[in-house]
Amino acid sequence: MESAQHRSPWAWVPSISFSQAVPYVAVMMLSTVMYKNLGISNADLAFYTAWLYLPWVIKPLWSPIVELIGTKRRWIVLLQLLTGASLAAVAFTLHLPQFFAMSLAVLWLMAFSSATHDIASDGYYMLGLPTQRQQAAFVGVRSAFYKLAMIAGQGGLVYLAGQLIVSSGDPAWAWSMVFALMSALFLLLCGYHQFVLPRPDSDRRVAHGAPWDDFIATFRSFFQKPGIKATLGFLLLYRLGEAQLLKMAAPFLLDPRAKGGLGLTTSEFGLVYGTIGVCALVLGGLAGGVAISRFGLKRALWPMVFVMHVPDLVFVYLASALPTSTVLISACLAVEQFGYGFGFAAFMLYMILVADGEHKTAHYAICTGFMALGMMLPGMVSGWIQQQLGYQYFFIWACISTLPAFVMAGLVRIPDAFGKE
């Protein structure tokens, strides 16, 4: 029998990657659809669910705690137990009079748990796969199972919720069943990882004081990087339009035509946006990676910015024409999501470029924090803007909001051969 010390990465890499995605999808996507089904206004659901990005924004601030206390393996197992309990608590709160405030409080706890789980998991990967060759071999596996969890969540679970709503006529009960199912899945993952995760010799508590001694120096060195102002502008503004569009995509697709939406059922939304859309997103990301490896990031950046943002115009078309064909709607969303995935590959590689150096892990975490902040702030006001403008003019505004991304793409500095094989 294979010992835990030398267990194959195939026994745990896919399952941890899957478990990283599920709570993020629940917090950032399923909550939006759920609150829309439960009658929450666009302004409220956008504002309050956008706040849930905050733990990912500030997670670099408490990352040293993961180093100081316990092992990363223990953090992973305990945080999965907490996430499973949180998912069950969401299911319970949906039947209470103050369900909106109480479920948001639980989702807030889950967001902090998920962000901390990401810190522990990312560190554990480097310990469990100690060589660069192993890490490179499984980077595709990690991405594939993360995306698989997105499809299962945004597609399968949303579709299931829609079917349960149709059969019961009670959205609160339907979403309670979905969150209860996710809770059971996470508790099973927690038990599985308790027995399966290896115990690397290097996974131990860091001596007290060591992380804190370098903490300020690490942040200072990040903000002293050459061209840091353009870098921060790029991180914050690259997805300014997309941040607003993404928050209103679900309400637009679900709202009745009388309110300017497309009137899809929840199950149709799960199929069209959560399954076909995410598959197109994955294909776009793969194509973006191929483009960068062939031409390098410097040459590919401008075309990738165009491919990412110009397809946002399909939402202007959808809000203007209000087509009834599910095939046409699916095709439009696939084009937009493919472009998003294609352009986002450039964004991810640029963060790797910025993070390169002595503190690359910490600097990459800081980059992702600014990335999350660039999604959180525009997302908070997107619902209010939509209610003032209506869907058609809101999507025109979202397209105009992509213009700063083009400006920042012209200001950042990228080495000629970076990203090219």
TrEMBL record:
Keyword Nucleus: no
This protein's record includes keyword Transmembrane helix: yes
SUPFAM superfamilies the UniProt entry points to: MFS general substrate transporter
Membrane topology listed for this record: Multi-pass membrane protein
One Pfam assignment: BT1
Predominant place of localization: membrane
Top-rank taxon, per record: Bacteria
Alphabetical list of InterPro entries matching this protein: AmpG_permease/AT-1, BT1, MFS_trans_sf
Keyword annotations: Membrane, Transmembrane, Transmembrane helix, Transport
The family this protein is said to belong to: Belongs to the major facilitator superfamily. Folate-biopterin transporter (TC 2.A.71) family.
Protein name, UniProt field: AmpG family muropeptide MFS transporter
